[in-house]
Design a protein that fits this description.
The protein is an alpha/beta fold. It is 31% helix and 15% strand. Strands 1, 2, 3, 4, 5, 6, 7 and 8 form an 8-stranded mixed sheet that branches. The radius of gyration is 16 Å and the shape is globular. The two termini are 20 Å apart. The mean pLDDT is 97.
């Protein structure tokens, strides 16, 4: 099965990434990708764009040359209370909010702290997708986190970059998360976590674990634009209604 939606990408606005929105659009067109989210790092990251970058994502077109652009952020989980570095009424202007642990903002602690932080972030209602939850530097109680994701209708990411260039040693944790998600009825997304446009839509390593766990493809939200947009609408992301003129959801 080909997945033509990518929920996780970074542009030059995060200075450790190397491509522009135009680069991503060209690569999406070349690969037949129908929808992708631009999700630069939240402003608490050392080299992240300013808060205004995310406010001003409204200048991006909804569609360009047959490719849809979701306006998003990969926010940072900040503390055990479940706060992220994007707040206030502005969060309603975004189509998708991802959040994850990043060492410069939340140094690794212990399993109990990581678990409670992630669960509280999920319960906050602010976040649609938890990124790279299988990071071995941040051990969690997997069953507890997956149960919270099911309860609060939040997706968990299988991050392809974790197996290619970052967060080495994630495979065992990610497989356990996929298996728990399968058993508990959670929803997953595949994210390339592209930091260069060439990697947009690259899920091959993530799909190896999906196949190993025999996870049902109908619970992978980026299987179609309609599936992802319906999920985001169900979470109250009213801005995605703009895509109704282009996708049937």
């Amino acid at each position: 099965m080909q997945y033509l939606v990518d929920t996780h990408s970074h542009t030059l606005a995060s200075s450790h990434a190397y491509s522009s929105i135009h680069d991503y659009l060209s690569e999406a067109k070349r690969k037949g990708i129908k929808l992708f989210a631009t999700t630069d790092h939240g402003p608490d990251m050392a080299d992240a764009p300013h808060f205004w970058h995310f406010v001003n994502l409204r200048v991006l077109p909804r569609m360009h040359d047959g490719v849809g652009i979701l306006r998003g952020i990969e926010a940072n989980m900040k503390n055990i209370q479940g706060e992220i570095d994007y707040f206030g009424e502005y969060h309603q202007q975004l189509d998708i909010i991802l959040a994850g642990f990043h060492e410069p903002v939340f140094p690794p602690s212990n399993e109990e702290t990581h678990t409670q932080t992630m669960v509280n972030t999920i319960a906050s209602g602010m976040v649609d997708v938890i990124t790279h939850p299988g990071n071995p530097n941040y051990p969690i109680d997997i069953e507890q986190v997956v149960a919270a994701a099911v309860k609060y209708n939040v997706a968990l990411e299988v991050n392809n970059s974790s197996f290619a260039t970052s967060r080495k040693g994630s495979e065992a944790n990610c497989l356990a998360i996929i298996q728990a998600a399968k058993a508990q009825g959670a929803q997953l997304v595949l994210g390339s976590d592209a930091h260069v446009a060439f990697d947009l839509g690259e899920f091959s390593l993530a799909l190896e674990l999906i196949e190993q766990a025999e996870f049902p493809h109908e619970r992978i939200l980026n299987r179609t634009p309609e599936a992802l947009l319906s999920f985001l609408a169900s979470r109250g992301r009213t801005s995605v209604q703009d895509f109704k003129a282009y996708f049937d959801f």
